[in-house]
Amino acid sequence: MGQQDPALSVVVPMFNEEGVLPLLAERLRAVLDGLAEPYEVVAVDDGSTDATAAGLRGLRERWPQLRVVRLRRNSGHQAALIAGLMRARGGYVVSIDADLQDPPETIADMLALARAEKLDIVYGVRGDRSSDTAFKRLTAGAYYRLMRRLVGKQVPAQAGDFRLLSRAAVEALRDLPERTPVLRLVVPWLGFPSGEVHFLRAERAAGRTKYPFSRMLALAVESVTSFSAAPLRVATWLGLLGVAVCALLVIAVIVAYALGHTVIGWPSILLAVLFLGAVQLLCLGLLGEYVARIYTAVQARPAYFIASDSDPAETDPGDTA
Ligand code: UDP
Ligand code: MG
């Protein structure tokens, strides 16, 4: 960290947020100026097609701590967030939505908690989602349950992308070979000491959601496939099931034959079809196992992170950080 680096960076991804921009600037600036510490705001304009870019230009004239990073085209919330995180220079970096659903006032609490308890990660946890639709609450609930099964209990339920990261945590993210990590899963997986700050999720201040159902579904699929090869193994289990059913049928056919209830030709055809289907599924599953191995190799995630070493001269070839 250089001499003139700010104590705090606030990363705000925004896509077509002309409506909330003035409100956001007002509330965010009040909070950040109140901290009486050097800070920067990294506004990531995710290829907005409305007056967001112009609005940001106007704000910059009166707000020297505002930095604007513009993406060439709309790349999505996660990508915009990562772009901002990678460029942030602060000792602590907070990411926050532009629409004021995450209250900027909570940033001060996050910073205080991180410093008081020496935490590298502070999650903003939505205490109450009554401002979201029943559908969003239902799907989000299912999403977090699934993710906690896949990644582990360290994934906090109801924590979105409103969070604080220390410089060390940002560097750890930057060192990951992955280009598009699903942040809300990868951040807990990094294993840093973390805490939570609860807040009430407000209504969107202006404009409408940029997260239609299709994008929510895409995030869910990406989350599962970026942390689990389980879907690739479904074929193996189906194949084994097929073989088991096949075996039971063979017994049933023999019993039926002994009792003289056989229709000539029927059992052999059915068994052949079933058996071939099961073998095909097993082979697909086998392929899946290899694809899964290739996939984890390509991800090249480190298997572990060293928290500390009493003898730092000892170099560990396994630690990539
Ligand atoms: N966003 C973005 N790029 C996109 C979609 C959304 O940068 O392609 C930003 C958006 O401007 C907002 C944040 O991501 O600051 C969260 O989006 P939104 O509030 O629409 O999602 P919701 O709260 O409805 O889930
Ligand atoms: Mg929102």
From TrEMBL:
Pfam family, one: Glycos_transf_2
Transmembrane segments: 237-258, 264-287
Keyword annotations: Glycosyltransferase, Membrane, Transferase, Transmembrane, Transmembrane helix
Primary location recorded for the protein, binned into one broad class: membrane
Domain Glycosyltransferase 2-like: 9-173
Record localization: Membrane
Membrane topology annotation: Multi-pass membrane protein
One annotated GO molecular function: transferase activity
Protein name as catalogued: Glucosyl transferase
Organism expressing this protein natively: Asanoa siamensis
